[in-house]
Amino acid sequence: MTKKDELIKNIDFSSALTLTHLVDYETGRVVSRTLASKPHVN
Questions:
Q1: b/e per residue 6-20 (b: at least 16 CB within 10 A)
Q2: pTM value?
């Protein structure tokens, strides 16, 4: 596994994604999506 592969989890490496499709929208509610979860990246 390369360094680049370590940052990608549950997403195909070469896939283009529309981030707005990855979270649900609800009026009056805050939603979020973690893009990176490593101590040196946060």
A1: eeeeeeeeeeeeeee
A2: 0.36
